[in-house]
From TrEMBL:
InterPro entries named among the record's database cross-references: YqgQ-like, YqgQ-like_sf
Gene3D superfamilies attached to this UniProt entry: YqgQ-like
Protein name: YqgQ family protein
Pfam families assigned to the protein according to its UniProt record, in alphabetical order: YqgQ-like (PF06014)
Amino acid sequence: MNSLYDVQQLLKRFGIIVYVGKRIYDIELMNIELKDLFEARLIDQNTYLKARNILIREHRIEESREDH
């Protein structure tokens, strides 16, 4: 798992499709859904941490785009 697309595909396996319309909001909602999957023990810790790190990275990228 290396990209936001990979995280989207992980969520999709559980029937979760996120589209709010603004990329930064999509990332925030994906983070909530990911946490819920982990807390429900549907994904392991390693998968959760990899996906979470990707979401953190992508969120920072979006924040820097909005600052300009």
